Amino acid sequence: MANLRKEITELGLLKKSPVKTWVKVCILFAIVGGFYILHPILPFWWSVALLPITALFTTTLAMTGHEGVHSSACNSRFGNILLAAIVFPLFTGMSMEFWRDKHNVKHHAHPNVHGKDPDIHNWPLAFSSEDYAKSGSAVQFFQRHLQGWFFWPLTMVTAHSMRIQGLWFVISHPFKTGKKKRFNKLWSIDLTMIVLHFLLWFVVPVKLGVSLLSVFLFYVALWVLVGVILSMIFIVGHAARPVIFEYDENWKLQIETGRRIKTGPVGRFFFVGLDYQIEHHLLPSASHFSLPKIAPIVKKYSLENGWEYEEIGFFKALWISTKHMSKAWKLEPIVIEASSQDNKNTDELVSGI
């Protein structure tokens, strides 16, 4: 990795793009703000028809907070925390510290690793035969026969579920840490912004004359769609890639459990860097604006070392990932060995989908 990082650094591709990031964030806020104003004005069915587009831009804006938590947006710690706080707890109502713990600390350190990556441990789903073996008989029946059919309906609760988990994370934090860290600045910012989130989403519209029922239904329906769109973006990055039981080389793990999604310039705008999952995992502090230039270098590096670098289109990845969920319960986790140039178990896993 030293030579790879040196080459990327010398090309100036690890420099942050704070101006581009804030311009994109402001544009997205203007767009979603316009949509939110339109919805109570439009006739009901026009509002319903516009909701998926509103959800798409809402999802994109929400994902810019991911850049702030990774410190990949701004040069200063203050700038990154400001972005993360505005987008995550204030705009989405989800704790930025919960996301940092779940995503940065656990997922990035152990992508697709059984027992360590929270993204492949979502009850009642089974992501490997190990998950299946630990489930009860009723849940095993669901995993064998119904999991593939119910996966997408279950994604409708993704955004709301993460918000609830984040709330619990913030509430329980003071009881899980030492006295000196109970009420730190980030915890205070998180809690304050989450409270403001609900005031802005529910109190302000009602004060402006919108009925509470209308606000509540809009809020629930919008974030249901956001959950589905988020899942479409998340699943193509790692699903149907090997689930790992053991590994002895972290950099190879980051490459062989991820997938590069070919999207084009329009798709790149909405993915906010997650179409370059491999590059993002290798260099999480790199700005998503630099990832298209970093990708060819990483691909060349991977092929030279005999490591598998998967690169496919979005709809193909979505189809493969969806099919994978119906069979994931019977797939064995594999072992990644640094000395192995071609892992037979990996080939069997992918070909069996």
Helix-strand sequence: HHHHHHHHHHHEHEHHHEHEH
What class would the helix/strand composition place it in? mainly alpha
N-end to C-end Cα span: 31 Å
**Radius of gyration, whole Å:** 21 Å
Low-pLDDT segments: 339-353
**What is the mean predicted local confidence, pLDDT?**
89
Share of helical residues: 55-70%
Q: What is the total number of structural domains? A: 1
Strand content: under 5%
Sketch the major β-sheet: 2 strands, parallel
Can you describe this structure in just a few lines?
This protein has 17 helices and 4 strands.
Characteristic key phrases:
single chain, 353 residues, mainly alpha, two-stranded parallel sheet, 17 helices, 4% strand, globular, disordered C terminus
Describe the structure.
With 353 residues, the chain is mainly α. The chain has one domain. 67% of the residues lie in helices and 4% in strands. The protein is built from 17 helices and 4 strands. The chain has helices spanning 2-10, 18-41, 44-69, 77-92, 96-107, 129-133, 137-145, 147-154, 158-176, 185-207, 212-238, 250-256, 264-271, 277-282, 291-304, 314-327, 344-351; strands at 244-247, 260-262, 311-313, 334-336. The strands form 2 sheets. A two-stranded parallel ribbon has the order 1-4. It has a two-stranded parallel sheet with strand order 2-3. The longest helix is centred in the middle third of the chain and has 27 residues, at 212-238. Mean pLDDT is 89; it is low at 339-353.
